[in-house]
Design brief:
The chain is an alpha+beta fold and 113 residues long. It has a single domain (25-110), classed as Pantoate--beta-alanine Ligase, Chain: A,domain 2, CATH 3.30.1300. It has 2 helices and 4 strands; from the N terminus they run H-H-E-E-E-E. A hairpin with an 8-residue loop joins strand 2 and strand 3. The longest helix has 48 residues, at 2-49. It is elongated. The N and C termini lie far apart (41 Å).
């Protein structure tokens, strides 16, 4: 009887981990696409002003659904000649932060701690 209970618990943990991974991937994809839709606005602003803007203009995201992983107050930073976007994926087991740097033009995954 203990073996059956142990096997059921192990199976439940595996199902939970797989489910979290599926949900996490879906939410990360939504957050990345949201960020990537802003790239043309940012590049245009840099062309006009010589530097990336210090903030995301509200009209750029007006009417857009904000993904659950995006904190509109802190996902974007500008250094003038570059910008950085980041968000946390709390369901990830490790490497739970995703970031995009305009200088390297690719996404990286890292652990905040």
């Amino acid at each position: 009887m203990r073996r059956i209970i142990g096997a059921v618990l192990v199976l439940c943990v595996i199902v939970l981990m797989v489910s979290c991974n599926i949900v996490n991937r879906r939410e990360v994809t939504k957050a990345k696409h949201f960020c990537e839709r802003l790239f043309p606005y940012l590049e245009d602003a840099k062309q006009r002003g010589g530097a990336y803007p210090q903030r995301i203009e509200p009209e750029w995201i007006k009417g857009e659904p904000i993904p659950s992983l995006i904190s509109t107050n802190s996902f974007y930073e500008s250094g003038g000649s570059f910008f950085w976007m980041r968000f946390e994926a709390p369901l990830a087991y490790w490497d739970n932060w995703y970031g995009y740097h305009s200088g390297t033009k690719h996404w990286v995954r890292f652990d905040k701690d």
